[in-house]
Amino acid sequence: MAVTDTPARIEAAFAEAGVTGWLHALDIDSGAQLGTGADQLVCTASVHKLCLLVTLHQLAATGALDLGEPVECPPAGRTAGPTGLAAMLDPVRMSVRDVAYLMMAVSDNAAADLLLGRVGLAAVNRTTQRLGLSGTHAVHTFGELLATIRTDAGPDGARALTDPHVITRLRALDPARTNRSTPRDMTRLLGAVWRDEACTPEHGAAIRRILGLQVWPHRMASGFPFDDVHVAGKTGSLPTVRNEVGVVEYPDGGRYAVAVFTRTAHTAATLPAADAVIGTAARIAVDALRAR
Q: How far apart are CA 188 and CA 43, in angstroms?
């Protein structure tokens, strides 16, 4: 397979799945890369939790934050969500480190906003700026993001999100007005984490461990169904948006950062083909990098 054919193959896979997609893939060690729409501004959704995780570990490395410090999470005021603390009914007390685990492993919105309450959006943006991620910016917390969706959807609430006309007015889906990045920025961040350039080696290892504990196998990991190939990543979802960024590690030592962001015109919450094409596109890209 000619490497020059790879973007066309990726775009064909996106089209067949009924999505518009943007992708960047990076060989973490050699620097070889490829992509399609790699510098397109995209809505990160929960992928931005990776930036928060790196921020937490940078602060911990300097002594500005204790990852073992306990965090209280009363039921009242929790950010909504279907997983983790967001779905729990009783008071919870756990460490900053374990709250971060829930934020990443099950994409817990309440956990993310507890941590943002500790460090602030400005700290997250300073982290991405220091790492040279010029297209990456956090505009609001996850609770604030969900609030814009409720406001923009209007009085019919979640039912209105099946209407394509309503979808077009959601600020949460406009990269100019929401948390945003580019595929290339996200692979640059992952590469820095895997090379211990984003944090000290101790904290880099902790970030990699947490990313490896994500529970969702239906997107990027679906493209690598091998017991000896490890995928560590973070998904992100909003109405019509399905994303994942991650690192694929092979037993021969090959390490590949891949960022895939997609949009579809279909408003259904369940679209297996749109999820699976993230794994398909990632596999096409990684295979091409490995063939170089």
A: 17
Question: What is the four-CA torsion angle of 108, 114, 119, 120, rounded to 10 degrees?
Answer: 90
- On average, the pLDDT of the chain sits at 96
User: And the tokens for 259?
Assistant: 């960022």
pLDDT-based confidence at residue 4 (cuts at 50, 70, 90): low
**pTM score, whole prediction:** 0.96
Burial degree of 230 (CB within 10 A; 0-12, 13-18, 19+): middle
Nearest to 57 by CA among 193, 208, 203: 203
Cα 42–chain centre separation: 11
Q: Which one-letter DSSP state was computed for residue 83?
A: S
User: In this prediction, what percent of the chain has a pLDDT beyond 90?
Assistant: 97
Look at the alpha carbons of 278, 194, 133, 210 in this order and tell me if their dihedral is positive or negative.
positive
Q: 191, 55 in Cβ contact below 8 A?
A: no
How many CB atoms within 10 Å of residue 4? 9
Measured CA distances, 277 to 53, 137, 188, 190, 246 (Å): 26, 26, 22, 21, 15
